[in-house]
Specification:
By secondary structure, the protein is α+β, with helices and mostly antiparallel strands. The protein is built from 10 helices and 13 strands.
């Protein structure tokens, strides 16, 4: 698996290929990484990693993101007008050589998507577990909370820390969060019947979001619940709490939006693995006391609380 340092090293190699006095657009860099749609995330990683030559990567429009970069480009003879590169095409570098790590990961997702089962594969539905991670730089605090489906009470929790091995890039969340989820799942005894994951399942460009990744890797029934749509065409807003609206992608029903509270912000439910969409929707609605289903809400609270406690311990030590 491509880890964070491999990814950063690849970004550095690409930035090194932009000569003095030339520029590339963020879409050029993300395309060289293997997925042009990841431009905003790549732009953020370039900035946060303080990569030498990052000032030569501009927005697709030619705009320079901050005054410091503009000053550096000006010193290299790049003319800017109102923060935008003049004659962008003459200055632009588009031919890069690299390993295209995101293309490899997307190929893996498409291959593994063939294993996803969209029918109910659980023998009972007594317990459901929610998973979430809270981050403190390169350390992730992972938490799992198991609830009884009969009365919604918490019956088991687990938490652990993991080193973050992959940056946050939409569409590739599993490569960042699965190690923490896997470790938390291993701590649970007995194992929950159904897993609820904060992210998408088959409502994903490769039909293999984090909920599907977790389900296939652990061979468990999983539901994907996301706070916002990533891809797909969302139907009309449901008029009443508990109402649903379809989400289609490539002409196929891939998930639904649920109005789980009075808020007009929907949650987006899709099949992860070994569950039908009908069951995923039914169980998610059952677990919604507020906008966010209780397994995920409680896991989020536990992860945040545990991260805070570890910070206090580190300071006091």
């Amino acid at each position: 698996m491509t880890d964070r340092m491999d990814f950063i090293r690849e970004l550095k190699r690409l930035a090194d290929q932009i000569p003095w006095g030339r520029v590339a657009t963020v879409s050029d860099i993300s395309k060289a990484l293997g997925d042009e749609a990841t431009g905003p995330a790549v732009f953020r990683i370039l900035r946060d990693a303080a990569i030498v030559g990052a000032h030569r990567v501009v927005r697709t429009s030619g705009h320079v993101p901050n005054p410091v970069f503009a000053t550096l480009l000006h010193a290299e003879g790049v003319r800017l007008v109102r923060g935008r590169v003049v004659q962008l095409m003459d200055r632009r570098v588009t031919d890069f050589h690299g390993s295209r790590p995101l293309a490899s990961l997307r190929e893996e997702q498409r291959r593994l998507a063939a294993r996803v089962v969209t029918k109910d594969g659980f023998s009972s539905e007594e317990t459901i577990a929610g998973f979430d991670l809270a981050y403190d730089r390169e350390i992730g605090t992972a938490a799992a909370v198991v609830l009884s489906l009969a009365d919604g009470k918490i019956v088991q929790t687990a938490q652990t820390q993991v080193r973050v091995r992959f940056p946050y890039i939409p569409g590739y969340l599993a490569y960042r969060e699965f190690p923490g989820i896997k470790r938390c799942f291993a701590l649970l005894d007995p194992k929950p019947d159904i897993l609820m994951i904060d992210g998408h399942g088959i409502l994903h460009p490769a039909r293999f979001g984090i909920a599907s990744y977790v389900g296939v890797a652990l061979n468990r029934s999983t539901i994907g619940v996301a706070k916002r749509p990533y891809v797909g065409d969302v139907g009309p807003m449901p008029r009443e709490v508990g109402g649903i609206t379809p989400v289609h992608l490539d002409g196929e029903l891939r998930g639904v939006g649920i109005r789980s509270s009075l808020s007009h912000r929907l949650i987006y439910v899709s099949v992860g693995h070994l569950i039908s969409l009908n069951s995923a929707v039914r169980l998610t609605k059952l677990m919604c006391k507020t906008r966010i289903p209780e397994p995920l809400r409680q896991a989020h609270l536990l992860a945040d609380r545990d991260k805070g406690n570890r910070r206090k311990s580190a300071k006091s030590g």
